[in-house]
Each structure stands twice: as structure tokens, then as C-alpha cells.
């Protein structure tokens, strides 16, 4: 039907609309009804557009490093701990330390075992990732300052990890301080039904000083012990998939996204779809700023080549063709736009004025 007829019908229904305006579902049904049609609504999930790929066969699965998150109350020492590990655990024999903050990093212990740390600044990215149900963490380190107490954010962190079924290792920090009282912290945890090992419970706990680096090696040992119980595996011989950790527009390099490969291996040249963006992986860098050609399971990597900055928590996939990637990206973008329109309030008179 001519668009002017649609506008006429809308007017008759008391709606002032312009030619390129989107209507909500209820209005669409009303207008269609005027023309003798019924509207059928199909709901589409943005992430669902990707077909579930085949499951991995057990014989294709290889051990992978654990992905670890550090949580806890503000000022209890999360950043200090992550910084200490970043600066000391440099791969033996490899030139240069971890120079860049890319939202995640991997360290290799002397015996060759690796751990990947999520190192996302601020709570927002974590909240976004949790909200999207991204299951990124294998083990949670919960930091509690020994000169303070179990605080609201400590409780929140414990509850989040428990709800997600993520094993917890407690790090009782700042034991170098004269006012430190680790036993009091253990008592508080016990009152919450989190009985630590040296109190006869099942929760691993390590007293540390993140500032001095005291006992951090023992803490990592306990983290690896928890990880080993989970028998973490992935299939390096398939197309990569994983989660976006952070992304930004870099003046010189264009859009730069840090992604964490969770399964498969990511290669330079792959066609990546991440959230509503896509592109060829033009170059990849590790947390040491070195160019790499491929990244296997549990490896964080900076990717250059996407046509925009996906959100933290968006999934990424590798597709066969540009066309396919573009089509899905466009479809998702359209859905996102429609969803944001839907949540918009009714138009105001002022807005109508501006439209005319
Ligand atoms: P976050 O908010 O959890 O990231 O905590 P930070 O790592 O920023 O630490 C907060 C403050 O506590 C900083 O001033 C740190 O220098 C200090 N701090 C962290 N760990 C230790 C520690 O083991 N011993 C002492 N004495 N101070 C620490
Ligand atoms: Mg911090």
C-alpha cells in the first residue's frame, strides 16, 4: 500500500508519524489490521544467528591453561596483585616483559605451566561480561585485606563466583602490615560458611603481600591445583571462538580489540565476526606488544582489522566468507537498532516539531 495511506491510517489512530519512523509492535498490528492483514512477529536473538558448530570429539581435546579473575573489595589489592604477577612472571628467556595493558595476559611458570589472567580495569567490563553470561573464568582469586575485613564487595565477589560454580582461592593480602590479622579474616569467612583449609575446610587460602610479592608463587600454585581438578581442555584444531575483553579506536592502527580465544586457534587473515562488527584479522599482538601469527585456546590477543569496536563480553566467531560475516553483522546491527528503538519512550511534541 502507498506509504501515504499508512500515514493516513496512523493519523486516524491519533498518531503523528513521519515517513521513516519505526512503529512499535502494537501499532504495527493496529495499522495492519486496518488494511485487513495480520502481523506475525518472529523473535531473533542477536547471538543466535550463528549456527551451533559441531561439538568437539574427546580425542581432539588438549589441556589448556586456566583463565583466572581477581576479585575483591576496593583497595584490598587486586591491581597490586595483578601488577606484581605481570611484572615478575615473564616467560623464561623471552625478551621484554608485559608492556601493555590489553585487558588480559598470560604468564608462564618455570615448569612451563601457564595461567591466563583477566585484567580488566574497572568493574564495568566485568559487569557487562557477566550480564552477557560469558563464562570466562575458571578460577576466581578473591582478595581480602588482612588489615581490613570481609567487606560488601568481598561478599558480592564470593556470591558471584559461587553462583557461577567457579572455584575460589582466597588471597589474604597485606600481611606485611603490622595491623594485619589474617586469622580474623578466616574467622569472618568461616561465619559465612567458607571454611578455609587450615581451619579444616575445603577452601584454599594463601596469606600474601602483593606489594612485596610475598607468597604470590604459593598462591599461583593453589590456583593451578584448583584448575587441575577441572581438567580444562579445548580443541586447538578448529576455527577460533571466544569473547571480546575490550576494544577501542586507536589513532594509528584503527579499531583494536582484545579477544580471548576460548576454543580453536585464531590465525592472521581469518574472517572475524565480533558482536555487530567484522573484518579480516590484519595483525595480531600479544601482551608483550609482539606480533604473532596465531593464538590458541586461553590466549588473549589484540586484533586489528575489525570495522568497529565491539563491546566487552561480545562473542567472536570465524566465518568462511566476507559476505557471510557482513550479512550477519548487518542483521545484528539492525536488531540492536530495533531493540534500542523499542525501549525509547513515546515521542514528545518537541520531537515531532523537529521531525517536520
Ligand atoms: P584494588 O583497589 O583492589 O585494585 O587495590 P590496589 O592494588 O590499588 O591497592 C590499594 C592500596 O593498597 C594501594 O595503596 C596499594 O599500594 C596498597 N597495597 C596493596 N597490596 C598491599 C600489600 O600487600 N601490602 C601493603 N602494605 N599495601 C598494599
Ligand atoms: Mg584496582
Please give a handful of descriptors for the protein shown:
356 residues, alpha+beta, 8-stranded antiparallel sheet, 6-stranded mixed sheet, 9 helices, 29% helix, 24% strand, globular, binds guanosine-5'-diphosphate, binds magnesium ion
Structural account:
By secondary structure, the chain is an alpha+beta fold. It is 29% helix and 24% strand. The strands form 4 sheets. An 8-stranded antiparallel sheet has the order 13-12-18-9-10-17-14-15, covered by helices on one side. The chain is globular, with a radius of gyration of 25 Å. The two termini are 23 Å apart. The relative contact order is 0.14. The model has no long low-confidence stretch (mean pLDDT 87). It binds guanosine-5'-diphosphate (GDP) and magnesium ion. The site of guanosine-5'-diphosphate has 15 residues, from helix 3.
Order of helices and strands: HHEEHEEHEHEHEHEEEEEEEEEEEHH
Report helical residue fraction.
25-40%
Which ligands occur here?
A: guanosine-5'-diphosphate, magnesium ion
Instruction: Label the structural class.
Output: alpha+beta
Count of alpha and pi helical runs: 9
> Tell me about the biggest sheet?
8 strands, antiparallel
Give the N-terminus to C-terminus distance in angstroms.
23 Å
User: Any idea what the shape is?
Assistant: globular
Multimeric status of the protein: single chain
Number of strands: 18
Mean pLDDT: 87
**β-sheet strand percentage:** 15-25%
Calculate Rg over CA atoms: 25 Å
Low-confidence stretches: none
